[in-house]
């Protein structure tokens, strides 16, 4: 069901990137890390399709959710212009979530730039559950190491890198050599997903990735977001919106 929500605050973090806080009590009460929302915040039917965004953070006491966004085209340009008090329609929370097994004691979270948007919520939830959380984020510039302050304040070990010659997974690998990690989590990039699969095979840990795909409906009805997964040695089709967006990495890489 689409919910009528309201913008509480919309801030430009750096040119081309923003963070929006939305009053959405029902969504913040039930959302899980890794879930996303389909959004509409303009009058009329242009743009036609709702825009999908990950839930970056929730504040259950305040009844708000946050979205961290990059300005790409028409929809996100309109997003950047929204003022406090503006109407904001949300369909969600949608999709599955990052599994946080109660037996996991140490986890690694890996991401790049704004692609790491869903990871702050995951880290917060894992820390609440008493897990030791290591966050590895890379970006092309220091200012794109989004959420660094939040990770540090919540008590995660934060490793940020802007070194173009070093893959962010290499920092996780350094730590894996001396510590056991139960799971690694990532989102977006196929390159990161493949490299985490390599680490899973070498260091025996579980791995989960959140995928992005162009989405029209967000609920499994339009078949617009199909991806290929591997199950029992066979290739199958899955909907990123309904079967994901989070998948075990062994289902994504052969
Ligand atoms: C599950 C999910 C979570 C996402 N979370 C975030 C987030 O937290 N922060 C963020 O900045 N972006 C996120 N994105 C990407 C975001 O949806 C697009 O950047 C946004 O829809 C672009 O809209 P636009 O009108 O500005 O761009 P346009 O290029 O004008 O959009 C045209 C069409 O393409 C789609 N589209 C364009 N780029 C993407 C993309 N990268 N992924 C999916 N659809 C796209 C649009 O939704 C729209 O239907 C997410 C996408 C998905 C699928
Ligand atoms: S977006 Fe319509 S089926 Fe996934």
SSE topology sketch:
Blueprint: E1 2-14, E2 17-23, H1 25-30, E3 36-40, E4 51-54, E5 57-59, E6 64-70, H2 74-80, E7 87-94, E8 106-112, H3 119-128, E9 132-138, H4 148-154, E10 157-161, H5 169-176, E11 183-187, H6 190-203, E12 206-210, E13 226-231, E14 234-239, E15 246-248
Parallel strand pairs: 8-9, 8-11, 9-10, 11-12
Antiparallel strand pairs: 1-2, 1-7, 2-6, 3-4, 3-7, 5-6, 12-15, 13-14
Flavin-adenine dinucleotide binds at residues 36, 47, 49, 51-54, 67-70, 72-76, 114, 117, 212-215, 245.
Describe this structure as you would to a colleague:
This protein has six helices and 15 strands. The chain is α/β, with parallel strands linked by helices. It is globular, with a radius of gyration of 18 Å. 20% of the residues lie in helices and 36% in strands. Strands 4-3-7-1-2-6-5 form a seven-stranded antiparallel sheet. Strands 10-9-8-11-12-15 form a six-stranded mixed sheet, sandwiched between helices. It has two domains: 2-94, Translation factors (Elongation Factor Tu (Ef-tu), domain 3), CATH 2.40.30.10; 106-210, 3-Layer(aba) Sandwich (Rossmann fold), CATH 3.40.50. The model has no long low-confidence stretch (mean pLDDT 96).
Briefly say what this structure is.
This protein has 254 residues and is an alpha/beta fold.
* Total count of helical runs of at least 4 residues: 6
The CATH first-level class of the largest domain comes to Alpha Beta
Instruction: List the ions, cofactors and other small molecules found in this model.
Output: flavin-adenine dinucleotide, FE2/S2 (inorganic) cluster
**Please, how many domains?**
2
List the secondary-structure elements in sequence, H or E. Answer: EEHEEEEHEEHEHEHEHEEEE
CATH topology descriptor of the largest domain: Rossmann fold
Number of E-type strands: 15
**Main beta sheet, described?**
7 strands, antiparallel
* Helix share bin: 10-25%
Shape: globular
The CATH superfamily title of the largest domain: Nucleotide-binding domain of ferredoxin-NADP reductase (FNR) module
The mean pLDDT is: 96
